[in-house]
Structure of Bifunctional protein FolD:
Amino acid sequence: MSAQLIDGKAVAAAVHERVRTAVAARTAAGRRAPALATVLVGADPASEIYVRNKRLTCEKVGVRSVPMHFAADIGETELLAAVDALNADEDIDGILVQLPLPAHIDAIRVTERIRADKDVDGFHPYNIGRLAQRLPVLRPCTPYGVIELLKSAGETFKGKRAVVVGASNHVGRPMMLELMLAGATATCCHRFTADVAGEVARADIVVAAVGKPRMVQGDWIKPGATVIDIGINRLPDGKLCGDVDFDAARERAAFITPVPGGVGPMTVAMLMQNTLTACVAREGAAAEATRNR
Ligand code: GUN
């Protein structure tokens, strides 16, 4: 068997179109376009590429992009003041501080300073807590995008075993919450898991988010499983590869995401969706506040 590819670019394009249509309807009705502030600190080449991509996608879907760029030696107090100003700005719906931040800045303090209703990354403890309580508001973009990809492949989740390989705060853990919300029976593998291969072999849905090139081996995959590879690793020859041994896994899986062109485009697409969601929710809250005045 050779698995069917799940085309992240195509699914992301459908999300872009959904957001673009909704934004166009807003502006046609005289309402403002959603606005996303992207905060970049320093000159990390990978971060610069990611942020540029986010800004370009904003343009494509009609979201107003508000780029902010600070030198690597900005003080934490100054960065927190910039976040405070964006929090207070009624014309800003979403705030994204690109990670990683320089070592002298406490990334957790900065992430938690962003107002929860403008936290379009979905990293704030409020948003993670809402997801854990099955009442999601702004959902972490990559796990949210994985759910969209799985749905595009016809996944039904209920009664299925899912395994997440990797337990990071921003990806692995919220991925577990998303899979449980969708109705799957989810297991998380982490550095203390005794038998990762055995856990993967039982799973109908495998999500790899560990950051180790080709760690998930092809012969671990249950025949007919769906395999989602979140990893993007650069090999010594400069090529990109995922956390899954793609060629071997493809021979056993029914569906599989490529790297690149699988999960990657979905993270930015769901960021656009979250920015629209934040804009609509804030507008609704403002209208309610006016009614109750
Ligand atoms: N760095 C790498 N990916 C991300 C992301 O999705 N959001 C933020 N804020 N920083 C990142």
